[in-house]
Amino acid sequence: MYNIAVVFKCLPGKREAFVERVNAEGIRDAVLAEDGCHRYDYYFSAADSTELLLIEAWETKRHQEVHIEQPHMALLRSFKGEYIESTTLTEFELK
Prior knowledge:
about 35% helix, globular, alpha+beta, single chain, four-stranded antiparallel β-sheet, 4 helices, 4 strands
């Protein structure tokens, strides 16, 4: 299993709107329907109103690499700058 944690630093007041747009555009559903996707979940920080965590779990790293080239991910990238200031990605293992 290939797992990644993506921490988004959102523009003030834009965190919830970003997740709502991802859902409204059907992006989360499209990701979950992709071959090899086991998890694609957003979590809000209780301590920082601008922090958003995305946990992704893929069958393999190659599945995730194919994922980022999908049209729905291009759509996400087209509006991401309206909501997100910075993005940090970390690979991790579940034990």
